[in-house]
Amino acid sequence: MSASGQAPAAPVPPRRHRRGLKWLVGIAALLAAGIAAIWLLLPPERALRLALARLEPALGLSIQFDGTVDYRLRGTPQLVVHDVTVRVPGTQAPMLQARRVLLALPWKTIRSRGADLEIARIELDGPQLQLPVLLHWLDTRPPGDGALPPFTDGLHVRDGRLDAEDWRIEGLTLDLPTLHAERAVTGQVAGTAIVDALRIPFRLRLQADRPLAFSRIEARGTLSADSGEGRLDTRLALEATRVDADAPGLTLAPLRVAMDARWRAEGTDLPFAFGLQGRLAFADGRLVLAPIGLATRADDVVPTFSAGGRVAYDDVLELALDGRIAHWPAGWPALPAPLSQTEGPLPFAIRYRGPATLGAPLSLHVAHGGARFDGSARVPEVLRWLDALDSGSPVPPLRGQLRIDRLEVPGATLEGLEIDVDDGTPP
Predict the structure, then answer these.
(1) DSSP assignment, residue 369?
(2) In a domain, 255, yes or no
(3) Under a CB-based contact definition with an 8 Å cutoff, are residues 379 and 355 in contact?
(4) Of 71, 218, 225, 424, which is least packed with CB atoms within 10 Å of its CB?
C-alpha cells in the first residue's frame, strides 16, 4: 500500500473545539472592529486600550499587552502588539500568550468602522495556547459560532505551542494563504507532538472543503515517531469524511490512511507499507478508532499481516486486534520440522493497555500449524532483539507458554510438548 494513493484526514477538533476556533477568530474580529472605529482619531496605544475595555466584558476575558503599539497606515494598515496575554478571570494559567501579534485591516473595514468586516492578515509569533483553559472558557460561552470574517492574506502562526493535559505540540507553524467561511481551504501545518517519551514530528499539507464546518478533509506529508531507541519515518496520505456533524465531538467515517514507512534503529533499516481504514470518534478527550482494519506489506523481518479490531486513547493506549500473518517471515529464525513445512496464514490476537510508548507488557496469542503460543512481550525489547537478530539470540524476548503437538529433532520425534518461556525481564 503506497502513500501515493488516496488517503484520509487529519483528525479535526470536535464541535466544541470548532466553536473555540471561531471564538478565537471572533476575538480578532471584534478587536479589529473596535480599533477601526477609533484608529484614526486617537494614538494607537490608547485606541487599543479603549477597544479592549469594551471587548473584555463581552468575551469574559482579560487581554493585556506590554510595550508600545506599532502601526502603519500606508498601503494596508497594520497594527503590531507585543507580549500579549489572554486570561479567563478566576483561572491562574493564561489561556493564550503570544510574543507578537500583527493585525492588518483593509481601508474599507476602517472606513466602515467595522461594519464591512474583512481581515487582510493575522500573524502570531510564539503563541502558547492552554487547551484545558480554552475548553473551560468555551463551557462558559453562550451557544453559537458567530460569523467567520474573510482573511484575504491569510492566517500565519510561527513557533507556537499547544498544551493539553497529557500531550503537547511544540514548534507549531501554520500557514493558511487565504481563509473564507464558505470556500475550500488549503494550508501547511508542522510541529512536534510529544506524548510521554514519544516525539512525533509532522509536516502536512491540508485541504478541506471548508475551514471549519467541513465535510471532507485530506492531508499529505511526513510524520515520524521517535522513541529514543529507534525512529519510524513515514510518508502518508489521509482522507476522511465527517459524519454526525450535530453530535457531540467529532466523527470521521470512513477514515483512510496509507503510508510508506521505514523503521530505523542501530543496525536496522526496515521498510514496509501500512494501511488503515475505519471509523474515528473523538469526544470528551477520548479518541476511539473502531471498527478499524489495518494491514502491512513487507519483506524480510517485518511481517505481512491484516487485522481488525479497536484502538482507544485518553490517558492510556488500548489495543484489541485480531488478524492473520500471511506467512512466516523470511527474516525470522527458521522453524524445525514439521512446523517449517506448514504453509498458510498464522492467526494472532493482541491486547494492550498502557502508555503510548508501548512500554507495558502486550498480551500475545499466535498459532502456526500444530504450535500455539500464549504469553506476553514488550515492544521495546522485541525491537532491540530485531536490531541484533544477525548476531544475537534466535529466541525472541517473550514470556508465556508454547505448546507444540509434534516436533522433530535429530534422532527423535517429540509429541505434546509444553515449554515455559521466560526472557528474564520483570513481568
Answers:
(1) T
(2) no
(3) no
(4) 424
- Domain end, chosen from 222, 239, 256, is at 239
341's CB contacts (< 8 A; 6+ apart) are none
Residues pairing with 322 in the sheet: 308, 349
Residue 252 lies in a domain: no
Q: In sequence order, what DSSP letters do the residues of 258-314 get, joined into one string?
A: EEEEEEEETTEEEEEEEEEEEEEEEETTEEEEEEEEEEEEESTTSPPEEEEEEEEES
Q: How many domains does the chain have?
A: 2
- Per-residue pLDDT reduced to its tens digit, 234-272: 999 999 999 976 666 789 999 999 999 999 988 789 999
Own/partner contacts of 395-399, CB < 8 Å, gap of 24 or more, are 395/333, 395/421, 395/423, 396/423, 397/423, 397/425, 398/364, 398/373, 398/423, 399/361, 399/375, 399/423, 399/425, 399/427
Whether residue 328 sits in one domain with residue 284: yes
Query: For the chain, what percent of residues have pLDDT higher than 70?
Result: 82
Shared domain check, 270 and 185? no
**Global pTM value:** 0.81
Do the domain assignments include residue 9? Answer: yes
Indicate whether 223 and 284 sit together in one domain: no
Find all residues with CB under 8 Å of 177, minimum gap 6, and list them: 153, 154, 186, 187
Note whether 400 and 364 are within 8 A (CB).
Answer: yes
pLDDT at 2: 42
pLDDT in tens, 291-329: 999 999 998 889 999 999 999 998 899 999 999 999 988
Domain interval for residue 297: 266-427
CA neighbor of 69 nearest in space, from 29, 102, 21:
102
Instruction: Tell whether 97 and 218 lie within a shared domain.
Output: yes
Q: Is residue 253 part of a domain?
A: no
Rounded distance, CA 114 to CA 102, Å?
Answer: 17
Please indicate, yes or no, whether residues 178 and 288 belong to a single structural domain of this protein: no
Indicate whether 205 and 294 sit together in one domain. no
Q: Pick from 188, 222, 239: which residue ends a domain?
A: 239
